[in-house]
Amino acid sequence: MYSCMKRTIDLKVKPLHLYVCEKYNPGPVSCCVVFISYSYSSGIATMGGICCAPCHPRKNPRVADAGARDEIHTVESPTGRFLIFANPNSGEGKSVAVFRKRLKPELVKNNIAYELIVTTHAQHAFSVIRARNDLHEFNAILILSGDGLVFEVINGLVLRPDHDRFFPHLPLGIVPSGSGNGLLASVYHTKSYPLKGNEFLKQALRSVSQVDATAHIVSLTHVETDNGENTVSFLSIGWALMADIDIESERWRRPLGSARFTAGAVIRCINLRKYRAKLSYLPSTETSESSVNQRTFPVFERELTERTSKCASSSGDTINFSDYHVKPGVPKLAEPVPDNWVTIEDDFVLFYAVSISHISADGLFMPSARLNDDRLYLTYILAKEMNSSVKLLSFLTKIEEGTHLDSPFCKKVPVSAFRLEPIDTGSYITVDGEVIKTSKIQATATSLRTAVIA
């Protein structure tokens, strides 16, 4: 037995026990924590290890399944055809096994042809999507991964010269294999589908493999960085506490799954940081008709060539995002903020902006958000209004039920666009959970839409 010091943090929400273990980190500076927590996805208590200072954990490199091979399945007179990406490194690393054992038999049974690509490196799907000249032959793109691979596919599509041909006409089917899956959870939330554990996965497998599959329209956001790059977001823009938790907990993706967010929240709240920034935003005061009426279309009703024959783009290689902005006149990031924007310069603890309801299957971050909204939702906490790590951790645990926004120290603002200019360094800027290398960022609601099968 190894000697351990035990501490119990009682948040009056869920107990969480920390064991500081001398065996795994005997050094005077390092601190290795073996903890028992709750996995919100499964409702089961889990145990894992955390290193909150420099240490020497067991190496667990993220490598592709050596036995995984790309695969093409063709049939005569198919119901439809899918292009499928499976990321063997997402979540607990089971995406390829899920495809082989659970999804493939359903596709074969329902006479659905497919091409499977097992990704081998970052940006693999992005590169494939940008280069393929036969995307119009597929009824949908299926993704067995988390939101990271969705991010690659959407941004690969939008940077194509014929991008108008695919938004929203080429839908995405998602089989949750990552630790986030906020996009799929947001779509399922509108249909009251299960979002927990194996039922979440079973529903996803049913949704994407049925001959009567339906796609739901989802809004997209234009994101601009200081290096001139344009990105499309479907989920969130984060900085400060939420971004730190997301990125710093990546190391526990395999052993903990979605429980990594709980572990990261505990460590970051105990070691609370604050960051200074200038935040400017254009308030949204109107609701368009599109945010009320959810639009859907059948996945297999017609060929994509027929659905898109009238909207093929001839605009060249560069998309003009300002043409899609919900509010005209939004300046470029390098230009001054207009007088009708609100500007705040202060010390922040938390900043998070979302366009849909869920940031993960067990994270109901913005209950009022609709899939086809014409706005973004800013949330932020100022350091001067937050001086308790326990209150902040309690706030984070309430995200599961969507009651965190009732906290008086949390500000919520619907906006058409915003600009974040961090003054202090030391935090990540993330878009849909992906780290973006930029010193400032601007996001704008757009009329661009994708579609998700549900």
Automatic annotation (TrEMBL):
Domain (DAGKc) ranges: 77-227
SUPFAM superfamilies: NAD kinase/diacylglycerol kinase-like
GO CC aspect terms: cytoplasm; membrane
One example GO MF annotation: lipid kinase activity
SMART domains recorded: DAGKc
Record-level GO BP terms: sphingosine biosynthetic process
Source superkingdom: Eukaryota
Protein name listed in UniProt: DAGKc domain-containing protein
Species the sequence originates in: Steinernema glaseri
